[in-house]
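Researcher: Structure prediction, please.
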Amino acid sequence: MKASSPDPSSLIERLHRAFGPLIGGIILDLVDLSTIGPYGLGGFFIGGLVGWWICSIYSISTQTRFIIALLAGIYCLLPLTEFIPVATLISAFIRFRGESNLRAED
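Model: Predicted structure follows.
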């Protein structure tokens, strides 16, 4: 009996589903970390652009995308958030909650 290897496309889809939201949070936290000090105001614009870009990956509506981009910009503008990975933690929590909802639907 020959063992079958997993389908690579399904592996990629599973990895994207598992880690996609976390990657967005990590990117936003890295932007927040990189805009420390005198570049803080620039963090608002860069964080907003990153928030908009992340939302575009997931085909979120324009109105919701604008709100999330605004929140991402504010997050990168706030002081004392540079060393706390809040965006990553929120992404992990959303992913965790989404997994339980998917199991309930099955």
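Model: The radius of gyration is 17 Å.
Researcher: Thanks, that helps.
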